Amino acid sequence: MNALVRSPRVLGSVAVACFGLGLGLAMLPRSAPHAVDFVPPAEDVCIVPPARVAPAMPWNPDSGLPIHAARPVPAEVRCPVCGMYPARHPQWAAQIIFADGAAHFFDSPVGLFIFLEDTERYDPERKADTVAALYVTDFAAGGWIPAREARFVIDSAARGPMRVANLPAFAGVEAAAAFARANGGEVIGFADITPERIAALRAVNHAD
Predict the structure, then answer these.
(1) Alpha-carbon distance 166 to 189, whole Å?
(2) Among 7, 20, 42, 95, which is least packed, fewest CB within 10 Å?
(3) Half-sphere exposure of 111 (CA within 13 A, CB side)
């Protein structure tokens, strides 16, 4: 390094120039990060949160759906009972629509019934008497069906998202009976799902 470069005056000027360049770059507008689709983690396990994972998802008037109609399960939504991603289990998913159109989604009918039994535990902002509609997925044909009109098969060999006993739902008694013949279990209606049955299912699905 020659004497000119070692000169304090030159070194000072270089330092000032570098500082100005860095400041200028920092002030340049930055492009927004690219949006990416939400991808749930490969491991989808029950986390049994001490409080709700998220509030109910508000109704979107721009969706074109009636306020109390069943709606697609958003990929990022988690079950308020166990924390799983219902969108990962389309054959089992269920949902509750409240009077204001907000919705909670569940990984299975068992989660829905547990939520109904103790609504304020899983969402302190909601009450069971504000529920406007309940939907479960038709296990055989797919698609949403009103839970109160569905037929369920209890005590079958089918294992739900929690890898234990669950309540596969069907639009008609014939499909439910055919499933029971193939997989065991009893065909029951919405009114037959008593607190005692919910407690038994909860014990194997969401022991806490």
Answers:
(1) 14
(2) 42
(3) 31
**In which residue are the tokens 């739900």 written?**
160
Selection from 76, 65, 142, 77 nearest residue 104 by Cα: 77
Q: What is the pLDDT of residues 121-141, one digit of tens each?
A: 999 999 999 999 999 999 999
Q: Which residues pair with 145 in a beta bridge?
A: 136
Q: Which of 92, 91, 114, 95 is nearest to 104 (CA)?
A: 95
**How sure is the predictor about 55, in pLDDT bands with cuts at 50, 70 and 90?**
confident
Residue 27 predicted with pLDDT over 50: no
**Dist. CA 53–CA 58, nearest whole Å:** 15
Q: Are 137 and 169 in contact (CB under 8 A)?
A: yes
CA 42 to chain centre: 15
Taking CA atoms, 130 is separated from 59, 120, 144, in Å, by 15, 11, 21
Q: How far is CA 183 from its chain centroid?
A: 28
Task: With beta carbons less than 8 A apart as the criterion, state whether 97 and 133 touch.
Answer: yes
**3 state DSSP class of 182:** helix
- Cβ within 8 Å of residue 149, ≥6 positions away: 171, 190
pLDDT averaged over the chain?
82
